[in-house]
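quick one
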Amino acid sequence: MNYQTVATGACERIEEAASQFCVKGEPSECSRYGNGHINDTFLLCTVDDRERNHRYILQRMNTHVFQNPKGLMQNITGVTGYLREQILKTGGDAERETLTLIKTGAGEDYYVDSLGYWWRMYLFITDATGYDAVEREEDFYQSAKAFGHFQRLLNRYPVELLTETIPDFHHTPKRFGAFCEAVEKDVCGRAKGAVREIAFVMDRKEELSVLTDKLGSGEIPYRVTHNDTKLNNVLIDDRSGQAVCVIDLDTVMPGTALFDFGDSIRFGANTAAEDEKNLEKVSLSLPLFEAYTRGFIEGCAGSLTDEEVRLLPWGAKLMTMECGMRFLTDYLEGDKYFRIHRPEHNLDRARTQFALAADMERKWDEMMRLAEKKYI
Ligand code: ADP
Ligand code: GN1
Ligand code: MG
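structure w/ GN1:
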């Protein structure tokens, strides 16, 4: 097999894993793929005996982040199977509109290699792109419709079948607790370089429980949510411009619609990249906020309650604060969670999140007005 952009040490593992899955033809080429922060993702090309090419996504799962990979894979098998049925019922193309797992020769949906690494494989969804930044407002609107629709399709999915793959993933107050512990321990001696960022969080600690309190009191419902709704986790059709498939299903768990809405806003309605160093470029784009709100409400098709709609700006702000805290926690703990590409990458990421949250505070009244506008 021909390898590109793959570290030499990884080739042997890939070779072993790739040979387990029931692909069409023989593997011919493998390269690193995408810009996810968590899993190791490869594009695997094969050629069959009639010289036809086929493509697959091969992933080495991150078992440091996902400590129950078996439960996680059961979630993905269950959710993709369910989505497949829903899509077929409405005459859709299930191999494009949801992820399709490829089985191993042993009939499993994953393979544990001789070193204990977990691997899985999906059909590659062709002629579609996962954008790392919003290039056109329409793409962002499309992604909103897709994430809203995704949640609505899973409305009746039996929650008891789902494993919580990362317990308390969006429990912002618990994230704050972990952050305080990291500041206190300061194992790498980095806290002195983040004094202003730490103070920014401390000044807002009272409001970090707004969503978890509302969930706890039953004022907003638990739903089956995606929980990682970055723009590059939805593939947009290159020809029609419509969203085709929601991907990265590792964190599908019970949550609130506001987690999904908020995480998309913090990533896609930021006028700068998540890791931009020049904070003057960071701001909340109100047109993008409006476009996403319209798309999400349409995608949910009337299933959001009035209270959920009223809290949309809180979703945006708290997911931004939470992600900032997570980046900063990881920086303080020595960059053990998010993949980094430069020494202060996580600190830069945290700074953009706090700059964005500060801009949301300045634009709060307008965000409230846009959230409560009648879109449908
Ligand atoms: P991570 O959890 O690391 O973000 P993802 O599952 O999101 O991993 O995959 C990383 C990238 O690989 C995605 O952003 C997307 O570009 C691409 N990708 C993943 N699955 C597919 C697929 N089935 N078809 C096409 N591209 C995919
Ligand atoms: C991670 O896997 P990826 O790159 O789509 C992270 C999200 C963060 C995001 C920040 C399982 O998402 O929670 O918001 O990075 N996923 C996990 O970019 O922790
Ligand atoms: Mg991803």
